[in-house]
Design goal:
With about 600 residues, this protein is α/β, with parallel strands linked by helices. The chain folds into four domains: about 30-115, no CATH class; about 120-180, Alpha-Beta Plaits (2-Layer Sandwich), CATH 3.30.70; about 215-390, P-loop containing nucleotide triphosphate hydrolases (Rossmann fold), CATH 3.40.50; about 395-590, Rossmann fold (3-Layer(aba) Sandwich), CATH 3.40.50. It is about 35% helix and about 20% strand. The chain is built from 22 helices and 23 strands. Helix 2 (about 75-85) packs across helix 4, helix 8 crosses helix 9 and helix 20 (about 525-530) packs across helix 21. It is globular, with a radius of gyration of 25 Å.
C-alpha cells in the first residue's frame, strides 16, 4: 500500500529573504562575484558574517586563506538549495545585495537555468508495479531517452512526455539523471511499512524533563512534509551536539512505522538504543541491535554500516544486505550519512520505495559521491548554521586554535626531508615536540573534561603512557569502552585519549576541551566530527569549548591543516594561529 498524497505543499526550511530593493552593487560590500561562478568574500568586511550566512546555503567553500575566502556555486549546491525551497531569483538577490561590483550578467542567467533543471523530470507512480518518468518538455525527454546512461532504465514510451519505469530501476535511473545534469524529483510515493505505535515522552525514562527543541521539530516536520510524497526522503544537516538523534526519533514518531537505523559503530548503536528507549514509549522488546556481537531483528533495529558491508571475501556477495528486506520497514535512517559506505549505495538504490532519512553535520564526502547521496537518500531538506545554534545556547560556544610546532632536531628534519610523501605526513603528525604542548594544555585544563584525539596509534600510546591516561582504540573491547565513556561522563575520568574511533557518534556531553594531535590528511568531515565532540551544552563547569589543533610547521601537515580549516570557516568559526612559544612557558621550550 502506498503512502497517501496530501494536498498541501511540504513544509520547507526557507532561507531568509534578501531585503528589497537592493542596489546593483556597493563598493563597501564583501562579495566579488566572478563569471566562473566563484565568489570571493572579504573576511575583514563588517558585513562578512551576515553575507557568509546568506551565501552558504547555495555555495561551497573552496579556499579559506586569511583575508579572502573563495566559494563556488556548483550545480549540486544549487539543486540542494532548490530542493530546500530557494528560487533562482532569491539566489541572485543575495549575490546582488552583497556584491562589491556589478554581478556578471551571465551569472543570474546561469543560476536560473541550473535551478530550473531540478524537477524538470519527475518520477511518478502508475500502479503498484509500474512507475513513470514524466517530462513536459518533449525535446528534452527525447534527448534524455537517447542518452546511453539513461535509456537502459526506461521502459515503454507511453507518449511524447512519458516513459514507464520498473520500480527496480528507480534508484539507478535517478543516479543516471543527475549525472547528465537533470536531477529528477521523485514523487512516486512509498510503501506504507508495518505499523508501530509510539510516542515521545514528556519526561524521559531517565527521569529528566524532555522537550523536542524547535529546530529539531521543524527538521522532522520538513522531512515528513505532512505525509506528502514530496516528503519522506532527504538529508537533515545539523551540527554535532545539536541532537540529530532526537530529529530521527521525532521522525519515527511522526511516521509510526517499523524503522531500521544504520550508524557508524557499536558505540553509536548503543547510544541510539539508549536514546530511543529513554525518550519514546517503545519497550526493550521492540528495539533490537544488529551488530557483529548481537544479531537481533525487531520493529526498530539499529545496525552498523560495518556489519551491513561485511563479506567473507571480495568474490562473495554481502550476506547481511538481506536485513533491508527482513521486515516491512517504513523508514530507514542513515546516521552520519556522509560516511555511508559505497556498497550501501547499491542496496539503497534497490529500496527506493522505503522512506529514507539522512542525518549529518556536513554534506562533504571525501570520495566525492555527494551526488549519490542527493539521488538515493534525497536532497538536503533542512540545515541550521552552527553559530546560530551557538548564539541561542543549544550548542556550546567554541574557540578554535591552531598551535604550530617545529620539528625538534636537525636529525628529525633530515628524516623528514628525505622521506616520501606519505611518510612525510606521518613524521610531521607524530612530531614528539607536540607532547610538550599537550602537557601544558592538560595542566591548564586539569579540572575539565579533556579529550586528546589523533590518527596514529604509536603516538597515542606514547601520550597515554606519559600522562597515565586511559586510551580507547579500535581494539578496545566494547565493555571496556562503555566503562571508560561512563566514567568520563560522571567525572571519575576527566582526561581521555581517543583514536579515530572517537570521531563518530559518541555521547560525551561534558567534554569541553579537545586536543587534536593528528588527523586524516585534509578531512573536513573529520574536523566536523571532532569539533562536535565538545559542542554539546555543558551541565556543569566551563560552558565554553576549546578546540586545539597541533600542527608541525613547514611540513605537509600544515598544508592539510589549511584544508581542514575550511570546515570551521564554513560554520563561522575563526581560527587563532599560535606558535608553541605562545603556549609553553620558557622552561618547556623545545627545538
Amino acid at each position: 500500500m502506498l503512502f497517501p498524497t496530501v494536498n498541501m505543499p511540504p513544509k520547507i526550511a526557507k532561507p531568509p529573504a534578501a531585503s528589497a530593493p537592493a542596489p546593483a552593487f556597493d563598493p563597501t560590500n564583501p562579495f566579488i562575484v566572478q563569471s566562473d561562478r566563484s565568489v570571493l568574500v572579504e573576511v575583514d568586511n563588517p558585513k562578512y558574517a551576515e553575507a557568509r550566512d546568506a551565501l552558504a546555503p547555495f555555495a561551497e567553500l573552496e579556499k579559506s586563506p586569511e583575508h579572502i575566502h573563495t566559494y563556488r556555486i556548483s550545480n549540486l549546491s544549487l539543486w540542494n538549495a532548490a530542493a530546500a525551497g530557494f528560487t533562482a531569483a532569491e539566489v541572485s538577490a543575495v549575490l546582488t545585495k552583497y556584491a562589491k561590483f556589478p554581478v556578471p550578467p551571465n551569472i543570474p542567467v546561469d543560476i536560473a537555468e541550473t535551478v530550473s533543471r531540478y524537477g524538470r523530470v519527475k518520477l511518478e507512480r502508475i500502479d503498484k508495479d509500474t512507475l513513470k518518468l514524466v517530462c513536459p518538455d518533449k525535446p528534452l525527454l527525447a534527448e534524455l531517452a537517447r542518452n546511453k546512461k539513461v535509456r537502459e532504465y526506461l521502459g515503454d514510451k507511453i507518449d511524447d512526455t512519458t516513459f514507464t519505469v520498473l520500480p527496480a530501476y528507480r534508484g539507478v535511473l535517478k543516479q543516471a539523471l543527475i549525472t547528465v545534469g537533470y536531477p529528477a524529483e521523485d514523487i512516486a510515493g512509498y510503501t506504507e511499512g508495518a505499523l508501530l505505535p509510539m510516542a515521545l515522552r514528556e519526561t524521559a525514562a531517565s527521569g529528566v524533563p524532555f522537550n523536542v527543541r524547535d529546530y529539531q521539530r521543524e527538521a522532522a516536520d520538513v522531512f515528513h512534509a505532512g505525509g506528502d510524497v514530496r516528503g519522506g526522503s532527504g538529508v537533515i544537516v545539523l551540527p554535532c551536539g545539536a541532537g540529530k538523534t532526537v530529529v530521527g526519533i521525532a521522525a519515527m514518531c511522526l511516521l509510526q512505522k517499523n524503522t531500521l537505523v544504520l550508524t557508524t559503530s557499536i558505540t553509536a548503536v548503543k547510544q541510539w538504543k539508549r536514546e530511543i528507549l529513554d525518550k519514546t514509549t517503545l519497550t526493550v522488546d521492540e528495539v533490537k541491535e544488529y551488530t557483529g556481537d548481537t544479531k537481533e531483528i525487531g520493529p526498530v533495529t539499529v545496525a552498523t554500516y560495518q556489519i551491513i558491508t561485511y563479506r567473507p571475501d571480495k568474490t562473495e556477495d554481502f550476506p547481511h544486505f538481506g536485513l533491508f528486506e527482513q521486515r516491512d520497514w517504513g523508514l530507514i535512517v542513515y546516521d552520519e550519512v556522509h560516511l555511508l559506505p559505497a556498497p550501501v549505495f547499491r542496496v539503497t538504490a534497490q529500496i527506493q520505495a522505503r522512506r529514507r532519512l539522512g542525518l549529518t553535520a556536513t554534506l562533504i564526502r571525501e570520495d566525492g559521491r555527494e551526488g549519490d547521496v542527493f539521488s538515493l537518500i534525497g536532497p538536503k531538506k533542512y540545515d541550521v548554521p552552527w553559530r546560530e545554534l551557538e548564539t541561542k545556547g543549544w550548542i556550546a560556544s567554541a574557540s578554535c586554535s591552531e598551535i604550530r610546532v617545529a620539528l625538534p632536531t636537525d636529525a628529525t628534519r633530515m628524516e623528514y626531508a628525505v622521506a616520501d610523501h606519505r611518510a612525510k605526513y606521518r613524521i610531521a603528525s607524530e612530531n614528539i615536540a607536540k607532547d610538550e604542548v599537550v602537557a601544558e594544555l592538560l595542566a591548564r585544563y586539569k579540572d575539565q573534561r579533556v579529550i586528546v584525539i589523533g590518527q596514529y596509534l604509536s603516538q597515542l600510546h606514547r601520550l597515554a603512557h606519559r600522562f597515565e591516561l586511559p586510551l580507547i582504540t579500535g581494539s578496545t573491547g566494547n565493555a571496556e569502552r562503555e566503562d571508560l565513556y561512563g566514567k568520563f561522563r560522571t567525572g571519575e575520568v576527566r582526561h581521555l585519549v581517543l583514536s579515530k574511533v572517537g570521531n563518530f557518534a559518541i555521547d560525551l556531553p561534558d567534554a569541553n576541551v579537545l586536543i587534536q594531535v593528528s588527523g586524516t590528511f585534509g578531512s573536513r568531515q573529520e574536523e566536523a566530527q571532532r569539533l562536535g565532540r565538545i559542542l554539546r551544552p555543558k551541565s556543569s563547569g566551563d560552558g565554553d569549548a576549546h578546540f586545539f589543533t597541533l600542527v608541525t610547521r613547514d611540513t605537509r601537515e600544515l598544508d592539510f591543516a589549511h584544508h581542514r580549516q575550511m570546515f570551521l570557516t564554513e560554520q563561522g568559526y575563526s581560527y587563532e594561529i599560535l606558535d608553541e612559544r605562545d603556549v609553553l612557558p620558557p622552561k618547556r621550550e623545545v627545538g
